[in-house]
Design goal:
Elements: E1 6-10, H1 16-27, E2 37-41, H2 53-61, H3 78-81, E3 84-87, H4 90-99, E4 108-110, H5 111-116, H6 130-153
Parallel strand pairs: 1-2, 1-3, 3-4
Helix pairs in contact: 1-6, 2-6
């Protein structure tokens, strides 16, 4: 399996990106996956906080524990450290493109476009209820599963 280092990015790193990180970690084997897997937020409002309790509960329903993750803000060194930086929505992607040095622009992608070849934003469930978190989980699971399959069959470059 190809093992690119992946950073999942959303707005505050408490809902979507920690779920994506947890799902992806759950799907890949630590023994065969050598790439770094992490998540971060565009903003630093929640730095040091655990994921939103609803994200934790949603993940737990599927046997995934994200309770020990802590939010952090995207750092300049992330652009060099990660092979792929996957934004949850087009707004986050635009912010990343504005922050990233020119030589790292090719590492930035919309999560759904890179994973499933669709131009769909993963909606922010923060102001919603459990149904919104469940829908986001389903989208992220499908995308992460597609990433695993992609890296198992294709050469990452």
């Amino acid at each position: 399996m190809n093992t690119p280092s992946i950073l999942f990015v959303c707005l505050g790193n408490i809902c979507r990106s920690p779920l994506a990180e947890g799902i992806y970690r759950h799907l890949v084997s630590a023994e065969t996956y050598a790439g770094q897997i992490a998540s971060a937020g565009i903003g630093g409002w929640h730095a040091g906080d655990p994921p939103d309790r609803r994200s934790i509960e949603t993940a737990r329903q599927y046997g995934i524990d994200i309770s020990t993750q802590r939010a952090r803000q995207v750092k300049q060194q992330d652009f060099a450290a990660f092979d792929l930086i996957l934004a949850m929505d087009s707004s986050n992607l635009g912010r990343l493109q504005a922050l990233a040095p020119r030589e790292y622009q090719d590492r930035l992608h919309l999560f759904s476009r890179y994973a499933t070849s669709t131009d769909v934003d993963v909606p922010d469930p923060y102001y919603g209820g459990q149904a919104e978190f469940d829908a986001v989980y389903t989208m992220l699971f499908s995308g992460c599963k597609a990433l695993v399959a992609k890296f198992a069959t294709e050469r990452f470059s």
